[in-house]
Amino acid sequence: MKKFNIFIKLFLLGALTCASFTGCETLDEDPKGAVTAATYYADPLSLEAGVIGIYGTMHRASWGVDILAAYTGADDLTSHDQGNKWVFLEGDQFNKTGGNQRTIGIWNGYFQAIHAANAFIENANPEGVEEDVLNKFKADAHFVRALLYFRLTTIFGDIPMPIDPVPDFEMTKTSSREVIAQVISDLEFTEQWAVNERDSNTDMQDGHSSKTAAKAFLAKAYMQLTGYPYNEADKWTQVKKYTKEIIDAGVYGLMEDYIHNFAQPWEGNKELIFSHQFDKQPWPILTQGRWYGFFWRDWMDMYIEWDFYDNYPEGYRKAATMSSTNEFALAWEHPVLTKLTYGTINGTPEFEHVWQTSNDMPAMRYAEVLLMYAEACANTGENAEAIEALNKVKRRAYAKGSTTSEEVALLPEGYWAVPDPAIDYTAADLNTPEKIIDAIVKERSYEFVAEVGGNRWLDLVRLEKVAEANQDRSRELPILGDPSDKSTWYAPIPETEIDLNPNLGQ
């Protein structure tokens, strides 16, 4: 979508407002000239415009580090007690309130994008457009709705779940399990109708949903169902099915250089399955991202917890991901994240000092597919398969002892797929499924630290290890709540919503 004609973007800026949101009303008493949500969609060009509007709304709702405030109860991220940082500390200290500005922002932004998707699904039905063409566009709307409902229910638990564009101001909450069922249904629709964006490592249609993205997020939804609060262990077969299909297709792979996931343009990245895309273009089509690596330098919204830093395995990935010795780490007396400070300037990977950036934000990478597959195999008795999938991610992290990107560039393509006795886990090291799973979960925490979606937090909740992970806080602010109290694992529905609809407080 970044290549979509700029004239079309600007022309549709006003049209999308009424096309995507049902709250718009025409003031023209003569309906002959009125453009409504139902009549706007007339052909594939207008359908594509509507899809871009939906993605623009979602990306804008995901534009900043603020969305990580929902996941600070894990053991990787924390903040300080100065200024306005209480909004990040509430989760970290298990003291979440319904007045938290960051979780309110997540709620409002995600539901705005869901509303746009609902309106598109309901109203985008032009006559004369073949079903497969129409459903290709609707697959994008279903995908956005699924992704955001998954995030909302893993953050807030039971939530209202509108799938109709007509507002219901007395709506009650839907159980989290029913929300996940809707997520799965939407992703299945996407899997059926989306155009697979990549048939080779170089043939891509960037920005849209794809069959592969649907399969990856289906695996993630089913994986969440295996643990708390659902505990449906039989769903591991579904996780393995979808991840194995992606792996066996042989299209995606790991980037040889880990850091290139955050510095490489989309067109050159064989690992990205889906990404929030940002560009320096007018909102709402595309927008800049405020997704910065130091979280943010002189203000320091968040930094890395000391115990997480100390336990993180030494090597190339750690050196690329975080620092305890640069000027900002020394100033704040905490390790700081560095991997998201890498960027691109005019398509060339290089450092970019940013406040707002055009860098894309990975939301699903092939590395996550490998580790979901590994955990599924460990839970279904295929230990050797699990260890090998885990080792691929570990080999790339170690990069054969490289210390710089220049050294990694000299490694052969696909080195991470070749056994490496110096770094690999063996069956003797991981001689029980429990040990394999523990190693996989730790690897996930290292690989995806501070990335969108809160993988570490979701894993701790799913495996009921929240309290265990928060036992070691030797140099952090004290916890105010009780990490073993599962009610603290979910953010309260915003007070602003309960004021409007008291049913949501019940």
Fold and architecture overview:
- With 506 residues, the chain is mainly alpha-helical.
- It contains 20 helices and eight strands.
- A two-stranded antiparallel sheet has the order 1-3. The protein has a two-stranded antiparallel ribbon with strand order 2-8. The chain has a two-stranded antiparallel ribbon with strand order 4-5.
- Helix 1 packs across helix 3, helix 6 runs antiparallel to helix 7 and helix 9 crosses helix 14.
- 51% of the residues are buried.
Short description:
With 506 residues, the chain is mainly alpha-helical. The protein has 20 helices and eight strands. Helices cover 45% and strands 5% of the residues.
Topology:
Blueprint (H helix, E strand, L loop, with lengths): L5 H15 L16 H4 L3 H18 L15 E2 L7 H7 L8 H23 L7 H26 L19 H18 L17 H15 L10 H14 L10 H4 L8 E5 L26 E2 L1 H6 L4 H6 E2 L3 H6 L3 E2 L4 E4 L2 E4 L9 E5 H14 L3 H16 L6 H4 L24 H15 L7 H8 L3 H4 L25 H6 L6
Antiparallel strand pairs: 1-3, 2-8, 4-5, 6-7
Helix pairs in contact: 1-3, 3-5, 3-6, 5-6, 6-7, 7-8, 8-9, 9-14, 14-15, 14-17, 15-17
What are the key terms here?
single chain, 506 residues, mainly alpha, two-stranded antiparallel sheet, 20 helices, globular
Task: State which percent range the strand residues make up.
Answer: 5-15%
Strand arrangement across the biggest beta sheet: 1-3
Poorly predicted spans: 1-29
Order of helices and strands: HHHEHHHHHHHEEHHEHEEEEHHHHHHH
Please give the largest β-sheet: 2 strands, antiparallel
